[in-house]
Amino acid sequence: MRFVLLGPPGSGKGTQAKMLMKKYNIPQLSTGDILRAEIKKKSKLGNNVKAIIAAGNLVSDDIILNIIEKCDKNGTCRDGFILDGFPRTITQANGLKKLLKKRDLKLNKVININIPDKEVIKRISGRWTCTNCKEIFNVYSKPEKKKGKCDKCSGELYQRDDQKEDVVKDRLKVYKKQTAPLIEYYKKEKNLIDINGILSIKEVFEEILKKL
To answer: pLDDT at residue 206 above 90?
Structure first.
């Protein structure tokens, strides 16, 4: 099984990817995580990517596609994969399609998790993280008992810059601009399924399984 997960920031893609990974025993390919791991390993690819990022440039589609191809060739993705964070554009989607076609493969489903903008902002801008044990709290759904302090270890809570409300709104705009055409693209490919992401984690997962 080969899946792509789409959805705005805060839609729970990462959580659902892990659940699908366990269910189908296939790897989750989070392109961001792979690139960070390569940088940490100081591999040839990692050093190349580090230099690109340091220069303020975006990592090219070719590099990402090479990572996916390498995973397929070395047998890691023999039984399939879950792609989270790629493709983000039509160009990337076409590149992925060509890569799979070259190996007589295709995507089984593209899972699009929908949640309203208000919910995205609430989920992300409400997040606060413990500086010590990394426990995550949310002022709307999981508030701490003592303001600014972690319930587990009493560590200080902080909010990442990219979780501030105005930044979240900007992230949403970028996502919509990039992904709206991608949703239409996969509709035409007849492999897109829409999922109501406002449901509980368990209910979202059940809806995905029902539609696969």
So the answer is: yes
Average pLDDT on 151-178 reads 91
Global pTM value = 0.82
Distance CA 61, CA 89 (A): 10
How far is residue 101 CA from its own chain's centroid? 23
Segment 136-148 shows an average pLDDT of: 93
Q: Which domains does the chain have, with CATH numbers?
A: 2-115+168-211 (3.40.50.300)
Paired with 4 in beta bridges are 83, 110
Please state, in angstroms and rounded to a whole number, the distance separating the CA atoms of residues 93 and 99: 10
- The tokens for 144 are 């701490």
User: Token match 């690819």: residue?
Assistant: 45
Catalytic residue among 41, 160, 164, 176: 160
88: annotated active-site residue: yes
Q: Residue 129 CB: number of other CB atoms within 10 A? A: 18
Q: What is the pLDDT of residue 53?
A: 81
Residue among 88, 97, 109, 149 flagged as catalytic: 88
Minimal CA–CA distance to 9: which of 104, 125, 93?
A: 125
> Three-class SS of residue 21?
helix
Neighbours of 91 (CB within 10 A): 10
Mean pLDDT of 23-37: 86
Q: Which of 2, 13, 122, 123 is catalytic?
A: 13
78 is catalytic: no
